[in-house]
């Protein structure tokens, strides 16, 4: 059986983009290694620290595993391996992309603060969304491998698995969640950038705005890549572009944003700066503590006092 030149071209595109994504991930790891030592390893053990390390090193291990498979070193003409590879890489992509969103959300809330109910709602939405995606990935892995695509294995040496129809619909909700996270993050940055020009260096604030924008753009790009590749190339080697290329880009942008947000925590305060920060925290606490519940009427007396 001979495969068409178009198939081999599509396979070359897939391998090239996977190589580019893995190379960028490893390259950025070495670029930001000093920041990781300074901001992460020297910090106390928290949930954010554990999640960051799992996401950072889990992505390196997962993308290296994908790169080895793309080089034709793992399949060994095994259909069972390809079925498991499709399922494992789908789980990996979901957990990698959504965990970095949750990590950014938790770190942004720790720095800038927001209403606890809003944060709980967003975290709950992401967790529920992850469960939905995992269920869809399980369905896709069990239903998406056809005899025709598996037969390409002895010639292609890599796993080319067809995607089932309509699975991509689950990723539409990611657009909404990504937009909400971006609005909350940029709103907080703009709100405090003027008040804290003397507290935080202006170049750091500009870096945070830049990284937040890049993270949002790459989040939308990753969602668009998933939907496009899983619809237009559902039975084509290019369906793998999201796993091998856009997912590493999203991880790099999210990790850089978290590292810069961590940089705000270790800023040394002078006496005046500390006083301003305490005043801000007290004002925010008083506003949250004494804000009347929704629906309760204002109990203050009208001007002029009570009627005699």
Describe the structure.
Helix content is about 75%, strand content about 0%. The chain has helices at about 5-30, 35-40, 45-70, 80-110, 115-145, 145-150, 155, 170-195, 200-230, 240-265, 270-290. It is built from eleven helices and no strands. Helix 5 (about 115-145) runs antiparallel to helix 8. It starts with a helix and ends in an 18-residue tail after the last helix. With about 300 residues, the protein is mostly helical.
In short:
With 308 residues, the chain is mainly alpha-helical. The chain has helices at 5-31, 33-41, 47-70, 79-112, 116-143, 147-150, 153-156, 172-193, 202-232, 241-263, 271-290.
What key phrases describe this protein's structure?
11 helices; mainly alpha; single chain; disordered C terminus; 308 residues; 73% helix
Q: What's the structural blueprint in terms of helices and strands?
A:
Elements: H1 5-31, H2 33-41, H3 47-70, H4 79-112, H5 116-143, H6 147-150, H7 153-156, H8 172-193, H9 202-232, H10 241-263, H11 271-290
Helix pairs in contact: 1-3, 1-10, 3-4, 3-10, 4-5, 4-8, 4-10, 5-8, 8-9, 9-10
